[in-house]
Amino acid sequence: MKGIILAGGVASRMFPITLSITKQLLPVYDKPMIYYSISTFMIAGIRDILIIVSPNQIENFKNLLGDGSQFGININYEIQQNPNGLPEAFIIGENFIKNNKVALILGDNIFYGNEFSYILKNSIEKHDGATIFLYPSNNPENFGVVEFSDDRKIISIEEKPENPKSNYIVTGLYLYDENVSYYSKSLRKSSRGELEITDLNNIYLKNEKLNYEILGKGFSWIDTGTFDSLYEACEFIKILEKRQGIKISVPEEIAYRNKWISEEELYRQAFKYKNNSYGKYLNKIIDEGKAFGGKYV
Question: Quick one: which of 113, 166, 172, 179 has the most CB atoms within 10 Å?
Answer without folding.
Answer: 172
